[in-house]
Amino acid sequence: MAINRLTAGQSLRKSIALLLALCLLILAIPEAHAVSVGSTASAVSESSTMSFGKLVNNATLFTTDTLPASGGVVVSAGTWLMLVSTDTYTVNSTEYGCVWYDNARYNVLWSDVAVQTTAELETYVTGTLWTTTDYTGMKPENNLKRDMRVYALQMALRTLGYYSGTLDGSYGDLTVSAVRAFQRAYKLDVDGYAGPYTQKVLYPLAISSFSSSGTTTGTQTGTVKTRVSINLRKSYSTKSARLAVVPASTTLAYYKTVTSSGVIWYYVTYNNVNGWLMGTYLTADGASSGSTGSETAIGTVLANTNTVVRKTANGSRTGYLLSKNSTATLLAAPVTVASYAWYYVKLSNGVKGYVRGDCVTASYDSGGGVTPSTTKTYIRVGSAGLSIFTTEEAPSSGAITVPSGTVLQLVSTETYTTNSVVYCSLYYNNTRYNAKYSDVSGLIMTAADLTTYITQTIWPAGYSMAGTLKEALNLQGNIYVHSLQYALSVLGYYTGTLDGTFGSATTVAARNYQRAAKQKVDGSVGPETSAVLYPAAIAAISGGGGSSGGSTTVADFGTFTKIKKVAWDFGDAGGAIFPKSATATVMDVQTQKVFSIKRWSGQNHADCVPLTEADTKIMCDIIGFPYTSSRPSSSQLKQIIADDGTKYIWPDFAGAWTTVTWNKGAWDYRPALLNVSGTVYAVSIYGFPHGYSDVKNFNPSPSVNNYYGMLCVHFVDSRGHGSGAVSANHQASILTAYSFAKTKWPSLVE
Description:
Shape: globular
Strand content: 25-35%
C-alpha cells in the first residue's frame, strides 16, 4: 500500500491553494446576498445596517406571509425602497423579502427586488433625489419611517456637517434638529420642517459639497494668493464647516470656481485637504491657459439675472457664470451677433468672455466704474424732473426724464468724471442709469427723510402705491422693496440688508410673515399682505410711548429698561429670573399681541397660567382660534382630568367636543418676549393647556381664567420636566425672539 507523504512545503502550498479557492468563492458572492432565515415574515428581523432595493417589476406589496390572490399594494418598477433586511424567508420554495413602503413594513416576492450597492445608492441619491424639482414637504408629524426621501435629506445634511446621526430614513428628533440648524444658518423659516424652500437651498449645496469631497481635484485652472488668513470651508458658504485656516500670502492652485450670492469661491487643496476659499480675500491670476490681455476698462456691467459667460459672442460656454446682482469690468464696446448685443467683460477672478446684453446693465466710465455700495442712499426728484441716461456722458438726445417726486436709489455715493463733468449712477425701474451729479447732489435724502417717507407715505398707501412685489419681477434698487424689507425687519421677520432688491431672503421673510398672519403663503406681497403688514409695522414703531432715560414704554407690554437672553438657573429653579407667584407680561413676537401670565411652579422651566380670562382670549386670538366664554361641563371636566391635557383641553377640546381645533402646533415653540418687572427676557412658549390637575387649586384657578391647564415658558438651556433634556426647537425659538428684540430696540439689548 502506497502512502503519500507530504513535506512541510507541500502542505503549505496545498493550504494556500485551498485558501485562494475559498477567497475566490467568497468574491463570487454578491455584495449583499440574501439568506433565508425561516418560513414566515416575522422570522426576518430588522437589520441595523441600512440596505436598499429597487423593484425590477411592477410589484405587489402585502402584509400576509405569501402573495395573496387579490389585494395588496402595487408599486411601479424602478421604485427604490429601504429593506427591512437582506435576509429573506421561504414558503413552498418561493423566496420572499421584507421592505418599507409608505412608513409601514410590507412583504414582497424577492424576485421582484434587486439589492443595490453603495455606489448605486449614492448615484441615485445625488443624481435623482437631490436634483428633483418636485419638492415634497417632510416633517415629524408625518411619522416618516425608513423613507428614501428622508434618507436623502439626512445624507445632504450630513454632507454639509449638520447631521451626525444614523442615515435611517426616519424623521426623528436628530433630523429635526439638523434641519433647524441648517435653516438657521441660511436664514430660512426655522421650524424643523423640510419644505420646498429648505430643500431648494439644501440640495444644490449638498451636490457641490459631495462632488468636491473626494481626493481628486481635477485640472488646475489657475492660482490664488491669500491676502489675509482665511478659512478653508467644506462648501462655498461662510456657514459651512471650517476645515482649516490658510495663512496670509499663501499661493495655491485652484481647480474650479462657483459664484454664490455675487461672491466667487475657489476650490483648492491645502495640506492635503480639499475645500473652498472665499474670493473676497484672495488675489487670483485667472485661468492659467487664458491670455492676460491688455484691454482697458471702460465701465462695468451689472447682471440682472444669472448669466452665462461665453468664449465668443454667442459662442461656446467658458464654464463660468456672472451671478445676479454681481458686477464685471466692461472691456470693449458691444458687438451685435444673432440679434443680441454682446459685452466683452472681465470677471473678478480674471476670466474674460462675453455676456448677452439683455441679461446685464452696462455703465460706462473712464476708469474702474462705480460699484454698488452696501449702504443705500436715496434721492427724491425735484419739480424739474431728472434727466438720466445709459451712456457714459450726457447725450444730446435720447435721455429719459424721471418725474418729479420719484424716489431713486443711488448705486453708490461714489462718482466718476468724464471730460471734466462729474456723474453718478442710480437705479430706475430696476435698471441702472447715469446722471449728472450736479443734478442729484441737492436731492439726497437724509436717513430721517427716508424713514419719514417710508412710514408716512408708502406704508399708509400700502398696495396702491407699490403694487405687487415679488422675486420673479427681479426688483432692484427699489424704494418699495426697501420699505417692505423695513416693515418685515420691524416685525422681526427680515434680518438682511435693507437694499431694495427682492431676493430669496426677502421671499423667505415674506412667507414667514404670511404664515404667521394666516394668509396665502407664496412670498408675493400683494393687496392682501400689504393690508395687514404695513398697519402692523406702523403700530410696532408707534406702539404706545417712546423711549427716554434708557427705558421704553410699549402699550400693554409696559415699561422696560433692558432686554436679555439668559440661562435658566436650576439651583433656584429660575427664582431670580421669574419668581414663583410673580406676574409678567408676554409679547408674542409673530403677532405683537400682549397678554399677562402668573408663574405657578416648575423646576426645569417656568410653569405658568394666564392671569385673567381676557388673557386666555388673547392667546386664542394669537393663533386664530375662536374663543368661547363657556365652561366645561362636569362630565367634560372628568375627561380633561383623565386625559391630562393630551387631547381633551379647554377652551378647545382639540376638536373632540367642538367643530374647531386649537391647532396644537401653533403653540409648540412660540418665540416671545417676557417682561418681568422691567427686565425683558427672550423666551419660547409651549401654550397648549396641560396638567389641569396640578393647577386646579392655584390662584387664578382654571374656573377664573377659563384656561384648564398650564403653559410652559422656556429660557436658554432650560429643560423639559419629563425628558430632562434641552429642546433644540425651544432654543431656536428663543434666538428668534432675541433677534426680533435686537432689531426693534437695539439700544436696550444686552
